[in-house]
Amino acid sequence: MLTLAPHPTSPPTPDPATITKPTLLHLQHSSSQIILWLLEELQIDYEVIIFPRPEGPAPPELKATHPQGKSPQLLLPGGRVLTQVSAITLYLLRTYDKDYNFHDSSSSTAHFTDKEDPNWISIKEEQLVCIGISDIASKVGMALLWHGISLKSPFFMRPIFNTTRKYLHKLFLDADLNAAFETLEMELGEGEWFLDRKQPGRVDFVVHYFVDIGVRPGYVKFTGENGEERYPKLKAWMGRCEAREAWKRSLEKGGGYDLDFPKRWGA
């Protein structure tokens, strides 16, 4: 039998019909940090309601506003509820980035165009976002699942689960995660931000979290076994993201951001 900590107490969930400004239902130590960071970059008037992160499923109170019961959720004036980081970032940028600091005025841009396909920048953006929310997230999710099972299971079962976990990493998890990181390293190129932007954009806001959740538990390493540097461009890019004042403010307001889940579970 798996042993989980007691469910922490969550705040009451507001009625979406009463919302007068964008309100983020924020789960600690989660991809909701993406949205909190973007809200701080946009410097708009918003509210954040913090939900403590349990060891098991998300707080049941989150189902009061959306049937999936996940975070992030962005409650909007008029009663609408937005979920999924990709959709929320798209909405926030198109609605509040009036000066186009973090996104472009159209699908084609002055600095990245393709005569054969004027929508190329949008297609490329979506491709890179999907590497985070699909490729990296699915592999890290599986790695965390087996890591958690091996740590929380009865002691006499742990060797079996640990062996299975290591086999999965050797079979495909390590290769797939490193392939995703290699792709991001290549796509970043010599620019400071993805898609050669002068400021961070949707790809940067979204992908940062998924790179982080691969690195923090040690599933992907920026330093090789012999001390060699791996993914140096990505590492420098992570530093630029985390040096931004908006990122620092989002950490202060988020109530906790620690993606080394195995360590928090007692590894």
Automatic annotation (TrEMBL):
Gene3D superfamilies: 1.20.1050.10, Glutaredoxin. Residues 19-100 form the GST N-terminal domain. PROSITE patterns: GST_CTER, GST_NTER. Residues 122-261 form the GST C-terminal domain. It comes from the Eukaryota. Belongs to the GST superfamily. PANTHER family: GLUTATHIONE S-TRANSFERASE 1, GLUTATHIONE S-TRANSFERASE-RELATED. This is Glutathione S-transferase. It comes from Rhypophila decipiens.
